[in-house]
Amino acid sequence: MAAFVRACALSELEDDTPKRVEIDGTPVSVVRTEGEVFAINDICSHANVSLSEGEVENCTIECWLHGSSFDLRTGKPSGLPATRPVPVYPVKIEGDDVLVSVSQES
Ligand code: FES
Fold first, then answer.
1. What is the C-alpha to C-alpha distance for residues 84 and 92, in angstroms, rounded to an integer?
2. β-strand pairing of 19-23 with 26-33
3. Cα–Cα distance, 98 to 16 (Å, whole number)
4. Do 89 and 100 touch, CB atoms closer than 8 A?
């Protein structure tokens, strides 16, 4: 069973503005975009760069350093230089709480 942990309040998320949180020691970028909320590991798979500092567009988050974009649904990079996906995590909304399970990658 995946353990869902409160990441933040839904009302504090602005569209297309990633919010970095730590859940059980895991850095996670929580993103509200296109009417949904996604949770993706905050560290780029190419180098140790915080994805939450990048731009969100078309359901992807872009690494500001070298420009790879990662699909918020799958974590897959859309182009070089990153070749490996970034883990994405299940999200549940309960009232104003955004819950994320980092114990289970989806
Ligand atoms: S550090 Fe993210 S693409 Fe290079």
1. 26
2. antiparallel
3. 16
4. yes
CA 39/CA 97 separation, integer angstroms: 13
The ligand 1 atom nearest the CA atom of 51: 2
pLDDT one-digit tens code per residue, 47-80? 999 999 999 999 999 999 999 999 999 999 999 9
Would you state the structure tokens that stand for residue 81, as one six-digit string? 């230089």
**How far from chain centre, in Å, is Cα 51?**
8
92 Cβ partners below 8 Å, 6+ apart? Answer: 4, 98, 99, 100, 101
Ligand 1 centroid to Cα of residue 38, in Å, is 20
Q: How many CA atoms, within 13 angstroms, populate the side-chain half-sphere of residue 92? A: 10
Exposed, middle or buried: residue 58 (CB in 10 Å: 0-12, 13-18, 19+)?
A: exposed
Ligand 1 centroid to residue 99 C-alpha, Å: 27
Record the pTM.
Answer: 0.95
